[in-house]
Design brief:
Blueprint: E1 2-6, H1 13-24, E2 27-30, H2 32-45, H3 52-59, E3 62-65, E4 68-71, E5 74-75, H4 78-81, H5 84-93, H6 97-116, E6 120-124, H7 127-131, E7 137-142, H8 145-156, H9 162-178, E8 191-194, H10 200-219
Parallel strand pairs: 1-6, 1-7, 2-6, 7-8
Antiparallel strand pairs: 3-4, 4-5
Length: about 230
């Protein structure tokens, strides 16, 4: 099956998606890494972050796999993709409609490949609404800006910058939700989970329960009931 996990920065998408995929034996695909890859290359090569046509060309050379994201066949290191500079640039390039169209195609291709291998947990910001609207289970994670900032500060070892991180997260929220191309929002049939007061294990357990419910419902469908 295909499981779509969406949500804003710091909501726990990556940690939850990795843990759920590991628990269920599925492929984990982080679609946000494709935008980070374009941002990283743009910063390296001096590409204007508002140059949609050039960014689309860069995006066409990005490949998403279960092993990570590649650019021209080169695996891009996770630590390079996760720097604050790349994160800020990724937010800007993701607003380019032409680039989003290219990367959406790449992400769908990766999901289909994973589906043929048994299924995938695909995480991002528009998976349930745009990339995989047909996913069997769609989940939208949320949490308060303060909690998301705390998590991000702990993750990056920048606990002393909590207020700056909180403001950056709220700016990213606004940019993602107000962009014309694929704005951040829950799919109409998504299950919204507020993770503010939940542990990682608690969220993972809830997602696994939802997967079990979907599978049980599917098993009750017979030719006579269709």
């Amino acid at each position: 099956m295909l499981i779509a996990i969406d949500g804003p920065a710091g909501s726990g998408k990556s940690s939850v998606a990795r843990a759920v995929a590991r628990r269920l034996g599925l492929v984990n695909l982080n679609t946000g890494a494709t935008y980070r890859a374009v941002a990283l290359v743009a910063l390296r090569e001096g590409v204007d972050l508002k140059d949609g046509p050039t960014l689309a060309v860069v995006g066409g050379r990005v490949e998403l796999t279960a092993n990570g994201v590649f650019y021209d066949g080169e695996l891009l290191p996770e630590d390079a993709l996760r720097t604050p500079e790349v994160s800020a640039a990724a937010s800007k390039v993701s607003a380019q409609a032409g680039l989003r169209k290219i990367l959406t195609g790449r992400q769908r291709m990766a999901a289909r490949t994973a589906e043929n291998l048994g299924g995938a947990v695909v995480e991002g910001r528009d998976i349930g609404t745009v990339v995989l609207p047909e996913a069997e289970l769609k989940i939208f994670l949320s949490a308060s800006p303060e909690e998301r900032a705390r998590r991000r500060a702990l993750q990056t070892g920048r606990e002393g910058e909590l207020e700056r991180i909180r403001k950056a997260i709220q700016t990213r929220d606004r940019r993602d939700s107000e962009r014309e191309a694929s704005p951040l929002k829950p799919a109409a049939d998504a299950v919204v989970l507020d993770t503010t007061s939940l542990s990682l294990e608690g969220v993972v357990g809830r997602v696994v329960e939802l997967v079990s419910q979907v599978q049980q419902a599917a098993s009750r469908i017979t030719p006579e009931s269709i």
